[in-house]
Amino acid sequence: MPDLYLSNNPSQENLEEFERLESTLPPTLRRSASSLFESLAIGTASGTSTPPLPSTPQAHENRFQQSRLGRDDGTPTPRIPSGSKSAHHHLVQRLQHSEHSRSSSPIPMPKPKFNEEIHKPAMNTSQSSTGVLWVTERATEYGFDVQDLDWANLGQGAPEHGDTIPGSFKRPSSVPVPDYSKEYAPTAGIKELREAVANYYNETYRQDKPSKYTYKNVCIVPGGRAGLTRIASIISDCYLSFFLPDYTAYAEMLSLFKNFSPIPVPLDESDNYEMHLEFIKRELDRGVSALLTSNPRNPTGKCMTRTQLHNLHKLCKEKCLLIMDEFYSHYYYDDNCSGSSISSAEYVKDVNSDPVLILNGLTKAFRLPGWRICWILGPEDYINALSSAGSFLDGGSNAPFQYAAVDFLEPLKVKAEMKALQIHFKMKRDYIIKRLSKMGFHFTDGQHGNIPNSTFYLWLNLSHLPGKLSNCLGFFHECLHEKVIIVPGFFFLINPQNLSRLEDVIWYHFVRISYGPEFDQIVKGMDGIERILERFGCLPYKVERH
């Protein structure tokens, strides 16, 4: 370990580094580590083990109030004065003893993001990292390198991109660069690719529909975030609703533009964050005229049924702009891995009058995230506005990659590719669920179950684990020591206006695990989590070490 982490007093260093880690979090999330410290102190002072964090937002709030006011039986909870030497000593001891096999476990010391001694006129230094970037920064400070095969990066939101999937087409190793591709591409994309996208959606989802997409209904964008940013720039004077938990990058996109008011709507954990239509109707009744959601959903891995999606369209038609992030639509496992998928394109009645924008691209389904070639489908008027926005926001997508992508979108080729993808990723999903179930995690199937039927994410509940492991920051800390990267659940609280009422729904007891990487990384990640649970004495079986 580098000298940076060495200390004459390892227990003192342990707590100080944990506090430094907390200091790198966005302000609305800093309570997580403070809450963990407080619970550890209470457990030490009362001579009891620390109970796991609860499994519902209300239970979390009750527990947080209990830690301030007393136990359920009315007996005042032993308190250690905050900031006192005694409090500090108890916290150090609690963190130290909960390690089970180490005298201390320092968290990587975050480097200051900005040097406060240097004056930076007009620079916004309060911008915080998104969840994936934050965990990667912390892991890098602890020695992570993308070339280091000892690490299992189960935090990155990208699929394996090599020639590793049986039946999948070979990833391109070179891209032609003809003279005509050296010019700027139109900000709406080259006509050939726009036509290919429109044809794919017509053949796959709209064969029985009289209204068909044309190239004029397609805008090519340099990545999903760029597409969302373009959309955010063209909507104005409206309330935009979105549902929690969801994609972490929405937070920055929604906070950047002031031409609309974003309204977060927390979903209920008890039925695995089902997006019930009464939620939508309630939002429409209070004046919402734009709705943003991912389907399938990141991080829960759940996809709406065709009936639910159809009803959503009927509810929003002519009342509300429906913005559908469908990047994971081809990672769908409920149809026997046949290559089929669910898309809003199937429920658009008229492509030029129904206010529906659909985002997708090569990033996930074609496993080419580095190409940054994505698209938006929608009515011509919206597409024209999105094209204009591209002229001052991002300048358009890479021209040679657009020409190379045209052949990928032949409908029968896509279906064969998606079938291979679904079989492979379902195998990885089933593997991690089998491993984690054996370790004592609980999974249920069905509409309200927590087994994902889409994406390559698992939304893992830690609430049954002891002490610091039940807190996503504590679990993240321990994973770093096993060279495993996961994303703490509280990053999926998208709160662009810092609404205080949303603090009660921060997911302290969840982490997102990605089974996007190659299978050997999945195995290493599960082995690392197993070692953590073994150290904390909470495995339901004995591990034989050779």
From TrEMBL:
Keywords: Aminotransferase, Pyridoxal phosphate, Transferase
Aminotransferase class I/classII large domain segment(s): 182-497
Lineage summary: Eukaryota, Fungi, Dikarya, Ascomycota, Saccharomycotina
GO BP terms: amino acid metabolic process
This protein's name: Aminotransferase class I/classII large domain-containing protein
GO molecular function: pyridoxal phosphate binding; transaminase activity
Tagged with keyword Transferase: yes
InterPro entries reported for this sequence: Aminotransferase_I/II_large (IPR004839), AspAT/PAT-like (IPR050596), PyrdxlP-dep_Trfase (IPR015424), PyrdxlP-dep_Trfase_major (IPR015421), PyrdxlP-dep_Trfase_small (IPR015422)
Swiss-Prot/TrEMBL cofactor(s): pyridoxal 5'-phosphate
Family annotation (Gene3D superfamilies): Aspartate Aminotransferase, domain 1 (3.90.1150.10), Type I PLP-dependent aspartate aminotransferase-like (Major domain) (3.40.640.10)
CDD domains listed in its UniProt record: AAT_like
Similarity-based family: Belongs to the class-I pyridoxal-phosphate-dependent aminotransferase family.
Chain spans, region Disordered: 41-111
UniProt organism field: [Candida] railenensis
